[in-house]
Design brief:
The complex is a heterodimer of chains A (167) and B (640). With 167 residues, chain A is an alpha+beta fold. Chain A has 7 helices and 4 strands, in the order H-H-H-H-E-H-H-E-E-E-H. Chain A has a 4-stranded mixed beta sheet with strand order 2-1-3-4, covered by helices on one side. The mean pLDDT of chain A is 87. Chain B is α/β, with parallel strands linked by helices and 640 residues long. Classes of the chains: A alpha+beta (167), B alpha/beta (640).
């Protein structure tokens, strides 16, 4: 979904997004969020287009964007796995869940697997503390994780992908 | 003259809508589908039940509701038969759905094993009432009164439960009287600091300006807290009504809800609710012909903890890096775009609604002299009944943990209770009789905070907890104030050293000195409170720090480098499970012969202990000076 956009397509799509927000400084964050929602990440041409629209320099926009953990500057994998590092998860050993994910995916948090399928992310808290430890894959929350459950879930996703490519 | 008749027509329609559920001709199925219910599989369960009912030619009305707070029993399903009172069941996981349909719909009976209770205050047809459920008995659900009982996406459901009557009353009695009512209620900010709400409002009211703003702070960033999420997902209108009342009282023209992007469901329900308010003339120009105009916009947070701090939140809405600015001037004088701005937490606003709906005299019956009302807490950690609870302020912590929460998982010993998230502290087990109110918690070195309550047991290392919170605040420090930016990093470095068995006694003094510097030299709440977890653990659990330093002992077996794993040759039967699981392959031994862990190269991950079958229990662990500690760095060299 990300790399398939050519530069002109991207700028075209962006103009459509811009219409929803007035051209003023307070639109920086909402616009960055729209861009990320549509393209999966914030790309340099997108920032340039924003800069032109808002009349704010690109470096200012990067300054704002890099402050917030939400914004990504590289395309994420198809499935974004968020492993919760909140307090409740921490005291119920989320670290061993993370360990299993690391082993299973062979990537460090913040990175994407070489097949582009999974991005592993650490998040502060997804607010499901009562079901700790939890992880979320593209927003779907998986509760009371164990190392075995992690392996199962990842296997399911991999199988789903294989089935798709098989058809 | 306000257009009350317009509202009366709406109330009539709302009553009709709610009557459809009360006087139902088909059974009504309430599915608890807040984020926690969904994580437990509520939507899958709902789907299966629907399909099975159709197959069996049974029909029912489905209503998706918010969270009852009994997270440990999710997914929760409540069935209201055509005759009799609603009955609440849980957990009904997708795999239980078939049996559920059979027992409850086809056989038309009660599934006793999954029964939580009947929606009543007394025993009904031999079934226990839900209000006597041990987790709910001590609770007073005021703020959460509608959560789990109404459809949060249905405007009429809220109206049918006295919705917007508080706002109507405000319009009728006028702003002075509203302020007086809030003052009389003794309501204090529920975001953590506990500042009297009426004072904040009167500061903003007394500042003259052409435009004023009201912000609802829903940037609930404390790890381990989800109270605001539940209220927004279960009863968004109660918060929005509070915004109307507050906006009207201070004379605000625009309102913002600053909500975390990590709460997609809460955001969606807010959007729907705001849309409904516009449709029914409760937002926009000249609301109900009262002359009061108010608009509400949602601002999505972008993942910065510091933006929960009010001045940082303001700079973030303005489109800047979310860095705090010095106070004074306080936002009530000069806030968003330099205009008077009142920022209130979600729960505070929900309380405002209640105070205006039911009156301050009713409100003050709960709580203590200085801490009025109830407070929601997210009860989590090593506790049997996790969930969202609401208790009157002033009841002892012990009651919350043992009566509401049901005690500690696996009946272990409670070690401490952490309140207030990264800004709070740990309250040790011997102080559990402490009443839960603003002053008592502060005196004990913690804070009320927004309501996270994490229970720790003997398997939690207090040094590790301090390290955990500091790693969080260190990463979330915005970097503006040097003592916070550099100080938290230095403190974290020391804690990491202690957890790795390389600490020295002078480190404790260093931590204490640094803590004071960070507290005093930081502009905002994040820096001023960041050292609290360290200071409170040093105050009550100094011996654990000393054990880590003196004898390299971690009594809770949490700090990896201080633990060694061994195999008891007497018990090991050589099943090879551990050798297979070892990620660095340092366990040797033939099949059916005792295995040995090579201490030189072991990375102390504990995998062998976890996989060793319980019938053998051959792997054991040790911590203390007998452990030969070897730096991980050298190990890597050896294994290449």
């Amino acid at each position: 979904m990300n790399s398939s956009h050519s530069e002109s397509e991207l700028v075209f799509g962006i103009q459509e997004l811009f219409k929803k927000h007035p051209a003023r400084r307070s639109s920086i964050i909402p616009l960055l969020q729209e861009i990320q929602e549509h393209y999966g990440y914030v790309s340099p041409p997108a920032v340039d287009a924003m800069s032109e629209y808002l009349g704010v320099s690109a470096s200012e926009i990067y300054g704002v964007a890099s402050f917030y953990t939400q914004f990504k500057f590289v395309p994420p994998g198809k499935y974004v796995i968020q492993i919760c590092q909140g307090t409740a998860c921490h005291v119920r050993a989320s670290s061993i869940v993370l360990e299993a994910l690391r082993e299973e995916l062979k990537v460090e948090p913040g990175h994407t697997t070489s097949d582009g399928l999974f991005t592993l992310e650490r998040v502060a808290c997804v607010g499901c503390c009562a079901l700790a430890p939890v992880m979320a894959i593209n927003g779907k929350v998986y509760a009371q994780m164990t190392q075995d459950k992690v392996r199962e879930v990842i296997k399911e996703y991999r199988q789903k992908e294989e089935n798709k490519t098989g058809i | 003259m306000i257009a009350e008749d317009t509202m009366e027509i709406l109330y009539e329609r709302a009553q009709e809508e709610w009557d459809k559920i009360e006087n139902n001709t088909l059974p009504v199925v309430f599915v608890g589908s807040a984020t926690c219910g969904r994580a437990g599989g509520a939507l899958e369960t709902e789907e299966i039940i629907k399909n099975l009912l159709i197959q069996n030619k049974k029909y029912a009305i489905f209503v998706e509701v918010g969270c009852l707070g009994l997270c440990v029993l999710e997914p929760i399903i409540m069935v209201q038969p055509t005759e009799g009172l609603p009955i609440c069941y849980g957990p009904i996981r997708p795999e239980n759905a078939e049996e559920f349909v059979r027992r409850v719909f086809i056989e038309e009976g009660v599934w006793e094993e999954k029964l939580i209770g009947v929606m009543s205050t007394d025993v009904y047809r031999g079934l226990p009432p839900i209000s006597k459920h041990p987790m709910l008995e001590l609770q007073v659900r005021n703020v959460l009164r509608n959560c789990g009982l109404i459809d949060p996406e249905n405007f009429y459901h809220y109206l049918a439960h006295n919705g917007y009557r508080g706002f109507l009353k405000s319009l009728n009695i006028g702003t002075d009287a509203v302020l007086e009512e809030v003052k009389k209620s003794g309501l204090r900010g529920r975001g953590g600091a506990g500042f009297p709400t009426w004072k904040k409002w009167s500061f903003a009211r007394d500042t003259s300006a052409d435009i004023k703003y009201l912000i609802c702070n829903a940037d609930e960033g404390d790890p381990g807290a989800f109270m605001n999420r539940s209220v927004l997902e279960g009863d968004p209108h109660s918060v929005l009504e509070g915004m109307l009342i507050a906006g009207y009282t201070i004379g605000a023209r625009y309102g913002y809800v600053y909500c975390r992007a990590e709460y997609p469901l809460a955001l969606r329900r807010l959007e729907i609710a705001i849309q409904q308010m516009y449709e029914h003339g409760l937002l926009g120009k000249n609301i109900l012909s009262s002359g009061f105009s108010f608009d509400i916009t949602i601002k999505k947070g972008a993942g910065a903890f510091v933006c929960g701090e009010e001045t940082a939140l303001i700079t973030s809405i303005e489109g800047h890096r979310g860095m705090p600015r010095p106070r004074p001037p306080f936002p009530t004088n000069s806030g968003l775009w330099g205009k008077p701005t009142v920022i209130q937490n979600v729960e505070t606003l929900a309380n405002v609604t209640l105070i205006l709906q039911r009156g301050a005299d009713w409100y003050v019956q709960y709580g203590t002299e200085n801490s009025r009302g109830t407070k929601t807490f997210a009860l989590a950690g090593k506790i049997k009944r996790t969930g969202l609870v609401e208790i009157p302020l002033g009841i002892p912590l012990r009651k919350v943990i043992f009566d509401v929460g049901g005690g500690i998982l696996d009946d272990k010993e409670v070690k401490a209770v952490q309140t207030g998230g990264p800004s709070g502290g740990c309250i040790p087990a011997d102080m559990l009789d402490l009443p839960v109110d603003y002053e008592s918690l502060t005196k004990a070195g913690s804070i009320m905070g927004s309501g996270g309550m994490i229970v720790l047991d003997e398997d939690n290392c207090m040094v590790d907890i301090a390290r955990y919170f500091l790693s969080f605040t260190q990463a979330e420090s915005c970097g503006k104030c040097t003592p916070c930016r550099v100080g938290t990093r230095a403190m974290l470095g020391i804690l990491e050293r202690i957890c790795a068995g390389k600490g020295e006694f002078a480190d404790i003094i260093r931590l204490e000195t640094l803590a004071q510097t960070v507290k005093q030299g930081s502009l905002c709440g994040l820096g001023q409170t960041a050292p609290n977890p360290v200071l409170s653990t040093l105050r009550y659990f100094r011996h654990e720090y000393e054990e880590h330093i003196k004898s390299n002992e971690c009594r809770a077996f949490v700090c990896g480098p201080l633990i060694s794993y061994h195999i008891d040759p007497e018990r090991c039967v050589g099943c090879t499970m551990c050798a297979k699981a070892c990620p660095v392959k340092v366990i040797s031994g033939k099949r059916k012969e005792a295995h040995v862990i090579d201490q030189e190269t072991c990375i102390r991950c504990g995998q062998c202990l976890r996989v060793c079958p319980a019938m053998y229990s051959a792997v054991y662990r040790r911590s203390g000076s007998r452990v030969r500690y070897e730096p991980i760095k050298e190990r890597k060299k050896k294994t290449g």
